[in-house]
Amino acid sequence: MKLPFLALLSLIAATAAAPAFAQPASNATGPRQVVSPQANADNSITYRLYAPNAQRVTFTGDFYTNSPAMTKGDDGVWTFTSRVMEPSIYGYYFTVDGIRFTDPSNLYTIAGAHFLKSYVEVKGDGHQFWSERPVPHGELHELWYTNPTLGERHVVVYTPPGYDPAAAKTYPAVYLYSGSGDNETYWTKIGRANFIMDNLIADGLAQPAIVVMPYGSTVIPSPPDGQEDTTEGVYAVHAIEKDLIGSVIPVIEKNFHVGKEPKDRAIFGFSMGGYIAPTIGLNHPEVFGWVAGSSADYRGAGAPNVNFKPLEANLDLGKKNFQFIGLMVGTDQASGENGHTTASKSAADYLTSLGLKVEWSQPPGGSHTWYSWRSYFRDLMANKFFNPHPYDTRKVGQPQ
Known about the structure:
The chain has 400 residues and is an alpha/beta fold. Helix content is 22%, strand content 23%.
C-alpha cells in the first residue's frame, strides 16, 4: 500500500542514533584542533571553545540552573568541565560576549523550536533503557500534512518491529508532545522514544504500539518563553487541539493501521506538552482512553476549574472511557520543576473531585529535563498505557 503523505525517509530506527560524542572538528584556522565535548573517565564532560578575542564566555546546559563562566587559556581556548553526569543526553550552548553559539566542534547539533542547541550523550556502563540495542527495530516515518489554518505541518511516526502496512492487524497509538523549546523530532533525537519502544517490546514489557509525535506549537520558531499564551488559550492549546483532532489523527488513521476507539489511543506530554496533552486528552473522552502529563503549569485561563469545562459537560463518558489518568512532577525544584508542583497537584485534585481516578506522582529527584521525561515515557508504556490494571502497578517515576 502506497502512503501518499509518507516521506520516503522511512528509516530503520537504528539509523536515528546520533553520535555519542562528536568527532574532532576545527573551529579555528590553521593547525589548531579543538576537541569538544570530551568524555572523561569519571563521566564528567569537558567543553572547549577557541575564541581568542572573546572577553567573556559562559556555558549553559540542561543540567545547570545557572550559566557558569568558562576559563580562558593562554592559547585562546575557553574550557569548562562539568560535574560527574548521570547517563543521559544533555543539551548545551555557549554565550560569547552576550551572543549564543552552538559548539562548533560538535556535530550533534539540533534545531529546536527556539534556537540551535548542541548535545552530548553520556552513555555510562552497559546499555541504558534508551540505548540502541541489538534487538529488532521499528521504523521512523516523516509525514507532511496541511492544516487549513496553520498551513503545512510535520509529524514523526514510529511503527514497531513487524509492522506490515499490507496486513489487517491494528495497533494502539500513543500521541506525544514535548516542551516549548523542542520540536516534533525531539522525542526521537533526544527522548529516544523509538529505542525505548524497541527495547520494551523486545523484553516483553510493552505491547507493540504506533507512536505519533506532532509539533506542539502553532508557528516556527515558537514564541519566546512567557509569550506562548494567545487568544487560542494557554500555549495556544485550542489551535493545537484542532490540529490534533482535525488533522493529525485523521492523517494517521488514513495511513497506518491503528485502532479507532478511545481504548486504542493514549496521549502524554511534558512541560508545555504536559499541559497540552491532558487538556486535549481529558476534554475529548470520545477520542482518548489513556491520558498523562508531566511538569505542567495550569495557569490563568488554564486553571483547572476553567480548563476542563468540556470534560465536565461530558463527564459520564469520561468516567466510562478513561482507563488511566496520570499527572506527575519531579521533586527537583531547582531544575525548573518549581512552579509546576502546586499547579499540577491542583489539577489532579480537581479531576479527583469530579469523580475521576487520577494517579498523582512526585518522582524522587525528577527534574525538568529529558533525563526524567524519557523515563516517565518508559514507565507509562511498560506499566500504564494499554495495561488492563494500570493503577495496580508502581507509580510513574517511583523507584522499583
